[in-house]
Amino acid sequence: MPEQQQWTITATEQPPEWFIQAVKHYTPASSGLYAAQLLWQRGIKDRQQLTAFINYKAYQPASPFEFGQEMHLAIARLQQAYNTKEKIAIWGDFDADGITATSVLWDGLGQFFAQNTQLVYYIPNRLKESHGLNNQGIDNLAKQGCKLIVTCDTGSTNVEEIIYAKQLGIDVIVTDHHTLPAERPPVAAIINPRYFPKEHQLFNLSGVAVAYKLVEALYQSLPNVAKYPLEDLLDLVAVGLIADLVQLSGDCRYLAQMGIQRLQEDFKQPAAARRRPGVGRLLELCQKSGDRPTDISFGLGPRINAVSRIQGDASFCVELLTSRDVKRCNELAEVTELANARRKSLQKDVQAQVAQKLTQLDLSTTSVIVLEDAQWPAGVLGLVAGQVAQETGRPTILLSTEGAGEQGSREQGAGGEITSLSSNSELRTQNSALILARGSARSVNSVDLYQLVKEQAHLLHRFGGHPFAAGLSLLVENIPLFTAAINQQLRQSLGSTTLTPTVQADLTVTVADLGKELFLELKLLEPCGMGNPVPKLLIQNCWFENSWHRNQQDWQGKKVQYIKAEFDIRDDSTRSAFPGLWWGHYKDELPIGKCDCIAELDYNTFKKRYEIRLIAVRSSANSGLNTQLSLTPFILDLRNQEHSATQHGLNLSYPLTGLIIEDCPTNWDDLRMWLRRCLASSRSTSGLENQQQLAIAWSKPKHQPPNQIWLTLVGIAKYLSRTNQVVTRRQLLEKIGISDQTLLVGIKALKYLGFTVQRQDRSLQITWNPNDSAENLADEAVARFLAAVREEQFQQQYFAEVPLSTIVAIASYDSK
Q1: What distance in Å separates the CA atoms of residue 307 and residue 555, rounded to the nearest whole number?
Q2: N or C: lower Cβ tally within 10 Å for the chain?
């Protein structure tokens, strides 16, 4: 599906020596050069900036009253409500920023207003409502006696709804960070950092951070009321900030740094002693510890977002984040985890269908990808659109007519802003024969998606969003016209510019550079986000070994959701390999031979190891195999000798483990793989004296009778079931002396005898519940296993004795 990517490397300007030494002060175990290069690239160029960037204690945050008159108006209105004991409603949003913002106000304002009596909250249903205020919800709050609504992460452009609330005697305080209205709405106050100039330290605040600033101002105005410290809210602020992908600069970075520290401190406590047991349980379910920004962006954020995508109603997430009832939080966390598993499954299905539709598009003539389907669930379209946009380098809009015919349905925008269109478009949807499509759009590079969609407003029912993401709805009959118009519009604006998927690397490193020292050095830049992305490392002339892949399952192991490949990476800089993984890919997608890759360096808290996360990979520019090599001296025959191949003084410039085969193969494909790898590693040599060599060094196998192997396998299975121990696949293979493929046949036979075999990471857990009803099937399965063992032993006997000339002939034929 993806086009050929364009790789770029960030231009590096060598920072001055004084700056390198200043950075080294924070990385005493390493030179600090890589971190200094990155920081210098990203505009940190004096000591004061550097200190404030790395150490949040040296940063001076802005006062909440920087918002000026609007903040004073908001606090005055809240104090009035406090003095007259008015009922207040928090109006939130259903994404992670909106949920955490609601939680911050719930906990923060809850110090001044009694929760559930004076203070309530309302989260719109993603699948039935939309971002922002709506009249039906306002009616509901009016019936409950609410006299003040405080919005968070939404509300700036809901002018009509604000007027409607005012008519019902309800004042509105807006806290938001989305697009500003053309004129100030008739609110008690509007607190929105978009009113600041872009250079202001508060300009990039997300919804949760704006909500925090409101609570901070109230704490300062009523200093003797709150029982819990303001800082208790910072972990929620960090979750919302990082999950919402805002630019982490100024106060955003400061708040995220402090919040991550609070998150980690709380997670280290026993579950019963945690301030936020729900957050702690979510971290446990996603095998994170809360000390890294990626624990939020890859762990907490997607799970909170998944609830509204799958269930529509995400209101219980506020309870999950704020309750101190451990048992209740555990229940809600498991519901959240199930929603995330379901989200993954739906996303995977839609991705496959979109990939199929993309094969029917001519991307050379397509500037904006617009695809639609009647069965796509609207809740995951934004996620898939984002992936397609990244892979193709083109803005992508995915539309669904699922649930069409519901009157008044609204789009699933990503930006918290609703833009109503003309009354004519509203009236046309009243005709039940007309079907409304809803969808999500994601952008790439410098294409302003919001403006792009806005230009076609006359064809739309509703739309909303921001430059990188938008939601929209339109009549199905308008989709072809909309597609043609938006493509023509972007082509005209681009001129001769070509849209190409681009991957940018920040630094060039070697495998020898990877590890703890470099990780701690790059960690100085955390938390990373927009404007300060996770460093991308370019590793050249490397190759992969020991690759394998597995299907990832949901947390109860019931359904396959996605796959990942794991591997070791090597290059000429060191004799040691370094582990890594590639999410969403099979091991067969890794190139054979030397290649270049772009990766991120990470620490796996669960496995307690440093590893790379592969972002992109391609064969090296000169990766064509040299087919003119003389193969006879290239392959050394050391079979059936008393000493191992490593004792024969081989002329090897690669690590020995990459050139020696000590395990007897069972088929030609296994041997061909090694031959191709060595041919690839020799492609750049000139002259036979520098040619890489392959040693075939297996001994004639000493086989047990197949029946004995079967009895051994059954005995091991019974022992593991009785002792409740686990075993790795490799341990099993070494114990009974068979191949991986034959072991799978044996496991199937075990299942017919009543054994249950479950994966636990790289280990297997075996339990036994005898079952006589499958006896005939078990006999057949055992017979198949014995036949597989006999065939494997026959093949190994063959490869132990096959002449070297035959191996050379096969290799020569494969290299042509």
Answers
A1: 16
A2: C
